[in-house]
Amino acid sequence: MTTDNILLFALLVAVFALLIWGKWRYDVVAFGALIVGVLIGAVPAANAFSGFGHPATIIVALVLVVSKGLSNSGAIELISKNLVDASRSLRAHIAVMASFSAALSAVMNNVAALAMLMPIDIQVAHRAKRSPALTLMPISFASILGGMITLIGTPPNIVIAEYRNDVLGAPYGMFDFTPVGLACAVAGLIFLVGIGWKFLPQAATTQSATTELFAIDEYIVELQVSEGSGLIGKRVNELDDIAEENEAAIVGMIRRGKRLPGMARREEIRKGDTLVIKVDPDRIDNLVGAGGLEYLRGNDAGKRLLAAEDLHLAEVVVPQGARIVGRSALSMRLLYRYGVT
After folding, report:
1. Residue 84's CB: how many other CB atoms inside 10 A?
2. Distances from the Cα of 209 to the Cαs of 108, 205, 314, in angstroms?
């Protein structure tokens, strides 16, 4: 082996090790590998960023944009709502979801299609009281099968089409893969729905574990001290009896939009102060009545949460008389407006 071969092999091993380690983000590892490749001479400096302009990269990026648009529009949720039924048998559910996954993968990137269907499948599994592990792998296989049907269904099809264009001067068309890809997809789906799903690993988690995943234990709720509350003038540490009666814990206090240092246990409570309380959902109304408190109706906290860049799982209390009572997430366009599902 030449020195270049040894350096390139060492770089690949290092990249593989970093990906397994998982400490750094994948894109950081990939970009770092590119820079190191240029520095050691494995990648010509003039061609270091040529891959960003490769047709395969551009097509995949555009497909992801379209996929995100479909997701934000609520189209996928609307279609799945009419297709998915928790009362179906496991085989029937796999048949419907696998077919939908394959069809969706044929017109968009199969990875994006799978990412959009997984939350739906998990919700249905919860309603049907069965483990999601029984159905997630079948729809994953189905998305792979569906991706073979068209040019844009899966990145390998795009790459081979571009390679054909470089060698023969003519790329594959959008539906050139369809005759073979569709036959393979149909055969694969028939096997998957027929007997294939029986060979999949049995769920390692039971329904009780699934229920526990979705169970609501305790809220961290913000309750505001209303005018005329009996708590006004008292110190926070004097509320221990009320909190104990309702199996709650006061974990902080907010005044004029700022969190007071520590738990502010010796602070005197004023009108308009907000108490941050950890409490069981069933006890919130009792606590509100006993302390003369009210649900925080301001929008600032919600806006800060909805504007966050990271993905959050949040439990939110809908107070009595709220404008959203009786409305669905689709009618409020939560996904389109805030990216909330």
Report:
1. 19
2. 33, 6, 20
Supply the pLDDT for residue 304: 37
Helix (H) or strand (E) holding 290: helix 284-291
| Cross-sheet strand order for the sheet of 293-295 | 258-259, 249-255, 274-279, 219-225, 293-295
What pLDDT does residue 33 have?
92
Whole-model pTM: value is 0.52
CA distance 177 to 152: 10
Using CA atoms of 289, 293, 299, 304 in order, give the dihedral in degrees to the nearest 10. -110
- Three-state secondary-structure class, residue 249: strand
Six token digits for residue 122 = 């998990």
The closest alpha carbon to 252, from 232, 272, 277, 285, belongs to 277
Q: Which residues are CB-neighbours of 89 under 8 A, at least 6 positions away?
A: none
CATH no. for 218-338:
3.30.70.1450
CA–CA separation, 170 and 155 (whole Å): 18
Residue type, 41: G
Highest averaged pLDDT of the listed ranges 115-124, 165-174, 281-290: 165-174
Q: Per-residue pLDDT for 19 more than 80?
A: yes
Ordered by start, the domain boundaries in the chain are 3-48, 71-211, 218-338
Interval 153-206: pLDDT, tens: 888 898 898 889 889 988 899 999 999 999 999 999 999 999 988 887 765 444
Q: Please count the other Cβ atoms lying within 10 Å of the Cβ belonging to residue 254.
A: 18
Within 8 A by CB and 6+ apart from 158, the residues are 55, 56, 59, 60, 151, 152
**Amino acid at the residue 53:** G
How far apart (Å, rounded) are the C-alpha atoms in residues 146 and 125? Answer: 23
Q: Give pLDDT tens digits for 63-110.
A: 778 777 776 666 666 666 677 777 888 899 999 999 999 999 998 888
Gyration radius of the chain over CA positions:
27
